[in-house]
Amino acid sequence: MEGIRKILIATDGSDNTKEAVSYGLWLAKELGAEVTALYVVDQTSFGSFPMDSSIVSVYSLLENEGKKAVEDVKAEGDSKGVKVTPMVLEGSPTRKILETAAGFDLVVMGTLGRSALGKLFMGSVAERVTRYATCPVLVVRAKKG
């Protein structure tokens, strides 16, 4: 097995992914790896709506949330001496994480914040990425608090 040099950390900016971000950055520091912090603006929620001003407003809010989430990962990486490249993409979170992961040695992600009901009907992003990724995936549970 070759060394891990490129780590993709998927984040949704929630408290549920903070533990995964910290763990991924620690691992990158230990291995001398570079990190890309990925946030996906989930466009699947907007697919059936006309793009009026209220939808554009919500979309902008999500895009700004994504930029903040990856910049927070970059700032934490900078404080630990880890090179982090922020990336915000649009589309289906599972699909975009899987497409992006193809160029990485490891994906690190949290359990991401879905309710039990959401998991029952939609499935977990982490579960689907783990199932279909072409590289190893490390899923880090959020600390119970």
What's the SSE blueprint?
Blueprint: E1 6-10, H1 15-31, E2 34-42, H2 53-80, E3 84-91, H3 93-101, E4 106-110, H4 116-122, H5 125-132, E5 137-140
Parallel strand pairs: 1-2, 1-4, 2-3, 4-5
Number of strands: 5
Count of structural domains: 1
- Helix tally? 5
End-to-end Cα distance, whole Å, is 37 Å
What does this protein look like?
With 145 residues, the chain is an alpha/beta fold. It has helices at 15-31, 53-80, 93-101, 116-122, 125-132; strands at 6-10, 34-42, 84-91, 106-110, 137-140. It is 48% helix and 21% strand. A 5-stranded parallel sheet has the order 3-2-1-4-5, with helices on both faces. Helix 3 (93-101) packs parallel to helix 5 (125-132). The protein has 5 helices and 5 strands; from the N terminus they run E-H-E-H-E-H-E-H-H-E.
Offer a concise description of the structure.
The chain is an alpha/beta fold and 145 residues long. It has a single domain, classed as Rossmann fold.
Task: List the keywords.
about 140 residues; Rossmann fold; 5 helices
